[in-house]
Design a protein that fits this description.
The complex is a heterodimer of chains A (about 200) and B (about 600). Chain A contains 7 helices and no strands. Chain A is mainly alpha-helical and about 200 residues long. In chain A, helix 3 packs antiparallel against helix 4 and helix 3 runs antiparallel to helix 7. The longest helix of chain B is centred in the N-terminal third of the chain and has 36 residues. Classes of the chains: A mainly alpha (about 200), B mainly alpha (about 600).
């Protein structure tokens, strides 16, 4: 038994199943991070004083991380576009760069975190650091999740390119949509935590 | 090839399919939406029974505070009930876990996971859900969440004790059971995320040819709106769970204010947190959650009312628009649970206004259902009795909610037994009657056998009487000012003395309600194996699920059906029978 519209679009909706599902998933992710950002606002508004991000955090490293993550979003699109143009080796190249960018992001984040711990800045130190570690930690888990999916599509999952290229292209597109969300969340996190 | 031979062919081909699947893959790790629906429904029913048992235990303490419970008291051990006397901590565990289990492990899995999974793909003429493996993952995530919740009873300090709402800062400083509760919730949230995405995609993409949105049965609409609520309202609770886990295990103070004094000592925390933040995040989920509880039941009742009155639903389109509007509005009423938290009158005015607005679509749907009865030739089958019982019970639940939605009256009623009475009228004789109606209605589709009518009627009348015996006294006690969650049921309060005897009435009602479920349990198992065999469409119904054989094979339909008309074409003038099924071409 085959489920209809797993690959081809349904004529009257113009979408395949996976595309709708990933957008719904992203909507729920927006509500998850939206709730945390709202919590940030409520805690900050209620606080007698709130430190400037730069007093605890390393703005240049975070700027570098922002550049790295935005670049990875560009290469993610290029990876998908390569598949649309039926160029599998370029797909591999660009998706590989995307995964590496994710790794670079995490390594930089690791150095940031260990510098904080070294200075004795822990989640329990104050509410600012508490929300900083919670938001960036959850975002980091999303980076790891996105990298896991991308790595699977780069490696064993890419066998599907030979059997069902249209389906595989859809999968890469959907993984890309998730990766853009991870990027987008960081683009909100960076000014909120480091600059404001 | 006639429909019977086609069915036989399909069944044979399908049996051959299934020879390859072993027991585990066919019944346990199945990706078939019908098997998953039944798994959800049976697990949900078991959790309902378990959650109800916790309450029957609590009702002893409430009716006879300080008196030893014979037999069962000894079985529960010295740590919980020394000498048969219930400890306050154990009472709190029971209270918190009763609410959690009934809402998150009982009603929602049965209403959405069970009925949604089993009925929705059949009603839209789909071969399965859009993502069968995600569907299986959804069930198993729910299952793990349930196991975590049950296991929490056995950790040191016992299960969560801070009420089903887990208000901070109490829950922040509670024992390790609270962390288990939070982890369990994360699994349950994951489960409903996977499920709701699946339902929405299935409804949008897998509708049979000809089945336009306004030909969808009302049940499908109710599930669709419910899925959006689950998808968008649960993540904020997940965020709250993460924040509370950080508070409990990383020493943060998201919900801990500065200078909090516990047992006469100032807690050593960084402070600066906001206990109200938890309430906002919790109710942002939990108000839509109330509609998650009620909408599937409304959908089930609508199907059964149309089928048993043998006429179209009154105002089907108004009902659909109402339920969509209700879904939107349910996201902006949450703070009516927080009128007495000191959030200010401006906020209170806004939220009581939205609350009054949201009552309009609920009343439109209920009125449409009641008007649907007018002039019908009603068949008083067991599912119809439960559906008819649902209407006034849900009406009482809804109307008693109005004084709680207005800030001025809520100040007096907040956290009293009145609130408990209101909520339970909505969910127990309301939603759960709707769910029982659904079990009796779709049981023949799921098993190919009908449930016994005599036992069903016994079950209905017993349940109807005792539900009211339990919950009507709550209004009396609440109006007298008795608070909820009291370990002694109010015995130590002077103002509660004149109404204390109602605790005994309510408790006896609860135990009798337990007895009244025995006919249902017997009926359920006896009918599954020995019940009267029925053909595909025993209720002479019009919607697409009745086009499939009973029980439907893997893939559901011999040939995928086509919808030729709206969902409720009953008693059409000039038609040969009093029902025109959606799948029959005109003139057939």
């Amino acid at each position: 038994m085959d489920i209809p519209y797993t690959v081809a679009a349904r004529p009257d909706t113009g979408l395949n199943n996976g595309k709708i599902a990933i957008w719904l998933f992203l909507a729920s992710e927006v509500m998850l991070f939206g709730a945390l950002f709202a919590s940030y606002v409520m805690l900050r508004v209620g606080a007698p004083e709130w430190p400037a991000g730069a007093t605890y955090l390393n703005v240049p490293l975070a700027t570098l991380n922002t550049v790295v993550l935005i670049s990875s979003s560009v290469t993610m699109v290029l990876a998908w576009a390569s598949l649309v143009k039926r160029n599998f080796s370029r797909f591999r190249l660009f998706l590989g760069i995307t995964i590496l960018c994710g790794l670079v992001f995490l390594v930089i984040k690791y150095f940031e975190y260990s510098a904080k711990f070294h200075h004795g800045y822990l989640p329990a130190t104050n509410t600012f650091l508490a929300i900083y570690f919670t938001l960036t930690g959850l975002h980091g888990l999303h980076v790891i999740g996105g990298m896991a999916v991308n790595s699977w599509l780069w490696g064993p999952g890419s066998a599907m390119w030979r059997t069902d290229p249209a389906h595989f292209t859809n999968r890469v597109e959907n993984a890309g949509l998730f990766w853009h969300l991870v990027d987008l969340v960081w683009i909100f996190l960076f000014p909120v935590l480091y600059l404001l | 090839m006639g429909p019977e031979t086609a069915t036989a062919h399909h069944a044979a081909a399908h049996d051959a399919d299934h020879e390859e699947l072993g027991f585990w893959w066919k019944y346990v790790f199945s990706t078939d939406h019908k098997t998953i629906g039944i798994q959800y429904a049976v697990t949900g029913l078991l959790f309902l029974l378990f959650g109800f048992s916790l309450m029957m235990l609590m009702r002893w303490q409430l009716a006879y505070p300080g008196r030893a419970l014979p037999l069962i008291g000894a079985l529960l051990g010295e740590a919980r009930m020394p000498g048969g006397l219930m400890l306050p901590e154990f009472y709190n565990e029971l209270g918190a876990m009763h609410g959690t289990i009934m809402v998150f492990l009982g009603v929602v899995p049965l209403a959405v996971g069970g009925f949604g999974n089993f009925v929705l793909p059949l009603q839209i003429g789909a071969p399965d859900m859009a993502f069968p493996r995600i569907n299986m993952a959804s069930y198993w995530s729910y299952f793990v969440g349930g196991v975590v919740m049950l296991a929490s009873f056995f950790v040191p300090g016992g299960a969560a004790q801070s009420g089903w709402t887990s208000y901070a800062p109490l829950s922040n400083i509670a024992g390790s059971g609270q962390s288990w509760w939070l982890f369990g919730m994360v699994f349950l949230i994951t489960s409903s995320l996977l499920g709701s995405i699946n339902f929405i995609v299935t409804t949008i993409q897998l509708r049979a040819p000809g089945l336009s949105y306004f030909r969808l049965p009302f049940f499908v609409w109710s599930q669709l709106v419910t899925s959006f609520l689950l998808l968008l309202a649960f993540p904020p609770l997940e965020a709250a769970a993460f924040l509370q886990l950080m508070d409990r295990h990383a020493g943060t103070s998201f919900f801990m204010p500065s200078g909090l004094v516990v047992s006469g000592q100032v807690l050593e925390v960084t402070g600066g947190g906001n206990p109200l933040l938890w309430q906002h995040l919790f109710w942002f989920l939990a108000h839509p959650e109330v509609y998650v509880l009620i909408l599937p039941a409304l959908g089930i009742v609508a199907e059964i009312v149309a089928n048993n009155t043998r006429k179209p639903l009154f105002g089907y389109r108004s009902m659909v628009y109402s339920v969509i509007f209700l879904g939107f509005m349910s996201f902006i009423v949450w703070a009516h649970h927080m009128f007495i938290t000191g959030m200010g009158t401006t906020m209170a005015t806004f939220f009581q206004t939205t609350t009054m607005i949201i009552s309009i679509p609920s009343i439109v749907v209920l009125t449409a259902l009641i008007l649907s009865l007018w002039g019908g030739s009603i068949r008083f089958t067991t599912p119809m009795l439960f559906a008819l019982g649902f209407l006034p019970m849900f009406g009482i639940g809804g109307l008693t909610g109005l004084p709680l939605g207005l800030a001025a009256t809520d100040v007096h009623l907040h956290d009293t037994y009145y609130v408990i009475g209101h909520f339970h009228y909505v969910v127990a004789p309301g939603t759960i009657f709707g769910l029982f109606a659904g079990v009796y209605y779709w049981f023949p589709k799921a098993t190919g056998r009908a449930m016994n009518e005599a036992l069903g009627k016994l079950h209905f009348w017993g349940s109807l009487v005792f539900m009211n015996v339990i919950f009507m006294p709550f209004f009396i006690m609440g109006l007298a000012g008795v608070s909820r969650r009291l370990y002694d049921g109010g015995a130590s309060y002077a103002h509660a003395q004149p109404v204390l005897q109602w605790n005994v009435v309510s408790s006896v009602g609860a135990w009798c309600l337990g007895l009244a479920q025995i006919p249902f349990i017997v009926n359920f198992f006896w009918s599954a194996f020995r019940g009267r065999r029925v053909e595909a469409n025993p209720w002479e119904a019009t919607t697409l699920e009745w086009a499939a054989p009973s029980p439907p094979p893997h893939g559901n339909f011999p040939q995928l059906p086509q919808a030729h008309r709206g969902p409720y074409e009953y008693s059409v003038p000039g038609a040969p029978r009093d029902y025109l099924p959606q799948w029959e071409p005109r003139g057939a």
